[in-house]
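Researcher: I've been going back and forth with a colleague about how MBL fold metallo-hydrolase might be arranged in three dimensions. Neither of us has a model we trust, so I'd like an independent prediction. The organism is Lutimonas vermicola, in case that matters for your notes. Sequence below.
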Amino acid sequence: MKVEQLFTGCLAEMAYYIESNGEAAVIDPLRETEPYLRMAEADNAKIKYVFLTHFHADFVSGQYDLAQKTGAKIIFGPNASAEYDIYNGKDGEEFPLGEGKITLLHTPGHTMESSSYLITDDEGNTPYVCTGDCLFIGDVGRPDLAVKQGKLTEKDLAGHLYDSLRNKIMTLPDDIIVYPNHGAGSACGKNMSSETFDTLGNQKKTNYALRADMTKEEFIVEVTTGLKPPPQYFPNNVRMNKTINTSIEDILHKGTTPLDAATFKEMSEQKDILVVDTRSKELYAEEGTVPGAWYIGIDGNFAPWVGALIKDINQKIIFIADSENRVNEIVTRFSRVGYDNTLGYLEGGIANWKSHGFEVDTIGSISAHLFAEKLTKGEMEKPVDVRKESEYLSEHVVGVENFPLDFIHENFSEINPDKEYFLHCASGYRSLIAASIFKANGVKKVTDVRGGFKDLKETEVPMTDYVCPTTLL
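Model: Here is an independent structure prediction for MBL fold metallo-hydrolase. You can compare it with whatever you and your colleague have in mind.
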C-alpha cells in the first residue's frame, strides 16, 4: 500500500493519497484536481473514494470536482450534509481499498461531523491514522468554529473533543503515525508544531492536550483559553465546501486574462475592483506599484492573508505578477480560499505600466539601524509594530505601539492620515502589506522598516523582555 502526504505550504495543509492494488483514495483534497488524477494515472489506479475529515474552514476543498471526474464516492462522517451527493459513514465503518482498508473513526469536537481515518495496509497492519483537525502535532483543533447559538457552545465542542481523543485516538497503538490536516501557520489551532507527522506515543509525551492525568474540565479550560477570533473568511469557506462551486478550470480561464496597461488602469480606478500586487517584497519596494494597490506577496503566506484581509469573498480582483509564468499559480492560490472573481493581470508587469507614463505609488523605506537612531532621538511620530499581539507581548521595541495586521480594518479608525507611520513586523512581509493598505486608505506618509524586528534586535534600541502568557499563545 502506498500512502503519500501532500503538503501545501501557503495553507499549512496536508492532503493524503492512498493506493492499493489499483484502487486509490484521497483524503482532504485541495480544489485543483489535476495532481491527484496524475498520481492515480501513474499508479494505473482508479480513485474509488474521496474522504473528508470535516467541512474545512480555511480552504475550499475539491471533493465535488474530483468525484465528478473519477466517479469516486464522497465520504463524510455522521452529521454532515451538503448540496451534492455524499455518503455519511458510520463510526467504525470499513471501506475496502485494494488489499487494504480505511476505517472511519467519528471524532467530533472541532466540528460535529469531524472524523479520523485509520489506514490498514495490505498485511493487516495499521501504520497510520489521518486525524484531520481533531489532533495536530503539538496541538488539537480549536473548538469554536462550529458553535451554534442556543444549541452548541465552544465548551460543548471542547467536551466532545476530549472524549474523541481519549476514546478513539489515544487508544490506538503508540507506534502509529499521526497524520494531521494542518501544521504550523494554520489558524485552526493555537500552537501547532512545524512537524507534519509524529508517533502517537510521542504526542502523548509532548502534546499538552494529551496529558494522561488531565481531567475533562481542565481540558476544556485549556483549549478554550486564549482563542483569537478566526479569520473572517472561515464561514465563507465552510459554506462553499457544502455547495457546488465554479470549477477551477473556469476560474483559471477568466483569471489569467492578460490586460494591457490602459485597460488595467481603467479597471484599477473602478471602486468595485481591487488591485493586488503579488510580486516579491524586494521588487514591490524597489519599483513601486499601481496607485491604490494592496501588496500581498505570493511568496509569503499569501492565501491566508488574502482571506483575512479581503472582506468580500466575491471581490473583483486584478493583479500584478513577478512573471507571467506565475499567473496560473496566483489565480489558483486565490481560489484555494474561495476568491474566485479574479479578472486578469497586468500584461508586461509594472515595467509596461511605467512605459505608458502612468503614475507609480511607492512606500518609504528605512533601515533598522536608522529607525533605532531616529526613535531614540524622538524624531518619529508613529512607530508601529504590526505583528500579532502574542509576538508583541513576547518582546518588542520600547516606545512602539502594537497594531496587528490581522485586525487592520477593524482598528483603522485609530489611524490619523496626517501623521507619518513607521511600520515593522518580524521580517518585512506583513509590514509591507500593512503599509500598502495604509496608503490605499489615504495615509500619505508611510515608511517600512527593512528587515523588521529581526534586524531591530541587532541594534541597541531598548527592548522589553516579557514572557508571553500562555493565554495569548
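Researcher: What would you highlight for our discussion?
Model: I'd start with this: Residues 467-473 have pLDDT under 50 and may be disordered. After that, consider the following. Residues 2-236 form a domain with the Metallo-beta-lactamase; Chain A fold (CATH 3.60.15.10).
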